Amino acid sequence: MARDLAPEVERLLQFRDPNIRKKAALCSIRIIKKVPELSENFINPAASLLKEKHHGVLITGIQLCTDLCKISTEALEYFRKKCTDGLVKVLKDVANSPYAPEYDVSGIADPFLHIRLLKLLRVLGQGDADASDSMNDILAQVATKTESNKNAGNAILYECVSTIMTIEESGGLRVLAVNILGRFLSSRDNNIRYVALNMLMKAISLDRQAVQRHLTTILECVKDLDASIRKRALELVYLLVNESNVKSLTKELIDFLEISDPEFKGDLTAKICSIVEKFSPEKIWYIDQMLKVLPKAGNYMKDEVWHALIVVITNASDLHGYTVRSLYRELQTAGEQETLVRVSVWCIGEYGEMLVGNGGMLNQEDPITVTESDAVDVVETAIRRHSSDLTTRAMCLIALLKLSSRFPSCSQRINDIVIHYKGSFVLELQQRAMEFNSIIEKHQNIRSALVERMPVLDEATYSGRRAGSVPAAVSTSQGAPLNFPNGVAKPTSTPLVDLLDFSSDDVPEPGSSGGDFLQDLLGVDPSPASSQPGGNQAQKSGNDVLLDLLSIGTPPAPSSPSTVDMLSSVQDDKSPVDMLDKLGSASVPCTRASPTVGSSSMMDLLDEVGPISSAPVAENNGSTYPSLVAFESGSLRVTFNFSKQPGNPQTTLVEAQFVNKSPNAYSNFIFQAAVPKFLQLHLDPASSNTLPASGNGSITQKLQLTNSQHGKKSLVMRMRIGYKINGKDVLEEGQVNNFPRDL
User: Fold this and answer.
1) Tag placement on the chain: N or C end, fewer CB within 10 Å?
2) How far apart are CA 158 and CA 62, in angstroms?
3) pLDDT at 321
4) Which DSSP letter does residue 709 get?
């Protein structure tokens, strides 16, 4: 119908009756939206409507031209060349027109026509410097002469600011626009303040310095009674933080945190923690700010935030004493904050002797008197609190076990507390209590080794996983160099899944293992372990792994050099069974993989009963598979060599060989791969990160692929290879679909 009626509607655009012309223009808008290819037929008639004297025809003609520009590039170029100057003249006439009661709104001359003209000029000026230059003067005039004490005037000013922010403009006019938004923030009307905050968020990318001048006003909006304004202002403040103002802004936000509404504390706490992590100039400042947030809003702090705090604390060896003393002080007044209790208990367990002995004192610190009994009291109070959850109580039990070694005089008292939980209805606590009681009473000879301080935790690995840069089934052999001057990791690049362009059906969920505390804390390989033949291994959640201090039955990822059991926190890097081998009841091979052991076997091990056998090391069964050239370009060739583990047809071992065919050596070489959900991928480190030129050497790297649908689906992999050549970064990508079908 639109196609058939279009010629007739086009003819009516030149009809002598202005009301008919207005209706025809409105109909034309609907026709070009239904049938965009007809838009070119309406370009010339629409342009003629811009010269109309009749108000109704003019305003509908402007709307028709605006829609034509959005639909047709040809129309946009035509109106830019032929109509921009005419539209500027019309806007100037409207802005300077005398009082006309017919179109006046609260003393503002024809605000609806003002707004339609500004919207069309915005479309014409976007991306075109000449058109933008021709409208600068009239935009400045509208911005300075329009009254801002009337709602109609504010509507015109808002559209004017939006146009200035969109067209190709110099900084001067943008500063004027930002100043208008600053005046909007002082308005008593919540709607005006809200749209001003929205527009300022867009203006940051164009002129951050101009927006920074209104930071004080924006901070006041964070304390507004209206929840929408508070939230939007907080997001804007977050975008305005930089290294120079981070300390003052953080202080303002933390001060407001104490008096803010409970429903706003969650968002505010998350933003403060993110700001502190991202911009902290030094570790002591980071720790100080987090210790201010914990007593005020610890219950609103997300798990990954206090996990990151513990990682930073372990890396700040000179601040261990200062941190544990500060936490002890805060715990005396804010013991109801669950997260504060967890961090404090963890630090007291690790650095309790520094708390008692005032070790590692800083110059600005005042010494405090804390006895061994006082330290144990804090942990006992936390574990007996009725509101403490399972995680907190389990952490308290671990801290008590560590303190039993650090404070021998309190060992019996600690054992009595632990024994109390041997009858707990919570299986997790009951198991720990039994195991810890056995260690305290029967195995003093290995207790000190079991409860040594945690090794320094890798900030880069933990922060990378938090940022989602290493999803569960996407592995990197060697990360790009990271710079952490503050000791606090900055957010990394977009997740590899997005970079490798996998569809949602084929890509593992990015958050599948990033939240596991022990994995993040101790650098455990996030890829799941492959199933042992003949065994039925149940996977435990990350919280179970965190809580299960002695659970050597949880299988680590096979042959992963980063797999660490909680029990193996000793510095000599022995596995739990290696360390307990002093009992004379365990026999272990050279591998790091531990057998699956039940709770009763664990007790047998501690009670020197029964040997433990270990799973055999898999060897190649002799099957041969043809080599595969997985990727080849003009400068690089990648070859895959395959082998299988005996009795485990689901698992394929791949040795990748990279050869440089160009005359230039490659540095910073990195191989990345991603696989669909039905596959599990584990990457070992590459043999080198430098690839010699002209095939005079190669880099090798071992991969392990486990196919959960072996025999039904073939292997498939997407790869990306990065390197530097003559100081320039190069990326090459490819997909491997031609794996041998019997793998």
Assistant:
1) N
2) 19
3) 92
4) T
pLDDT at residue 463, as a whole number? 67
Residue 16's nearest CA partner among 50, 44, 64, 52 is: 52
Q: What is the pLDDT of residue 481?
A: 37
Note the pTM of the prediction, 2 decimals: 0.57
Cβ contact 601:553 at 8 Å: yes
Reading the block at residue 133, the tokens are 């230059």
* Residue whose structure tokens are 């100081």: 727
Please report the pLDDT score of residue 19 as a whole number: 93
Residues of the chain with pLDDT under 70: 99, 170, 463-623
Spatial separation of the C-alpha atoms in residues 263 and 125, rounded to whole Å: 43
Instruction: Please give the pLDDT value at position 468.
Output: 52
pLDDT value of position 466: 62
Handedness of CA 70, 75, 77, 81 (dihedral sign): negative
Amino acid at 541: S
How far apart (Å, rounded) are the C-alpha atoms in residues 615 and 351? 37
User: Quick one: pLDDT at residue 465?
Assistant: 64
**Rounded distance, CA 572 to CA 456, Å?**
13
**Residue 359 dihedral angles phi and psi, to the nearest 5°:** -80, 150
Whose tokens are 């209104």? That residue is 214
Please report the pLDDT score of residue 414 as a whole number: 93
DSSP-derived 3-state class of residue 529:
coil
CA distance 174 to 151: 22
Longest CA–CA span in the chain (Å) reads 108
Report in angstroms the alpha-carbon separations of 50 from 39, 101, 355, 695: 17, 23, 80, 69
Distances, alpha carbon 89 to alpha carbons 92, 462, 552, 599, in Å: 5, 61, 81, 86
Distance from C-alpha of 681 to C-alpha of 355, rounded to nearest angstrom: 44
Q: How many CB atoms lie within 10 A of CB 437?
A: 17
